[in-house]
Model the fold of this input.
Amino acid sequence: MGSVRLQRISPLLADWVANVGRLCLPEAIFELVDLRNWPLPMMDEPAIPAHAADYSTPHAQAWSQKIASADAFVFVTPQYNWGYPAALKNALDHLYHEWQHKPALIVSYGAHGGDKCAAQLRQVLTALSLHVTEQHVALTLSSEQILRNDGYIALPEAVQSQGAALQTGLMELRQLLR
Ligand SMILES: Cc1cc2nc3c(=O)[nH]c(=O)nc-3n(C[C@H](O)[C@H](O)[C@H](O)COP(=O)(O)O)c2cc1C
Done:
């Protein structure tokens, strides 16, 4: 989940993604990674992650183990001012080798589906040598959903209509694993 805001819609959308994933790929284990549970101060490691053999802080070491333990990633992220959240960039930049050569699917959301943040994220993930699926899932939220994003709204219909695109993305993700 890319959002760490106190009142955010991301858990609702990420749950939906994980549940579709569990139906679509029953042999896989889908785990939600909430960056609020992985507090990473802004770039407090002395070494450049791409050059580092190890990390000096316990939080970077724990984050490294978490990401190293996963085979693939689905990034569920909002668009903020045409980009993706700073917390997600910080979490990506803390590591390097742990991301490499693993498949990734981008699920973006916003008033227009978050295409601009998805394009930026695709570029950064490619720099980290992640294999990003061609399929991108764009979830369009209404202004009412954006204003009332306290986690208690029902799953927007516009989101559910993207189920087929999500399934296509997940199947592509699985193919990239092989
Ligand atoms: C700082 C900020 C900037 C935003 N910028 C955009 C934007 O550029 N485009 C857009 O469609 N929505 C934008 N929004 C609306 C978000 O897409 C919407 O609030 C969404 O619910 C945020 O996800 P979250 O609740 O999981 O944090 C912005 C919201 C915030 C908080």
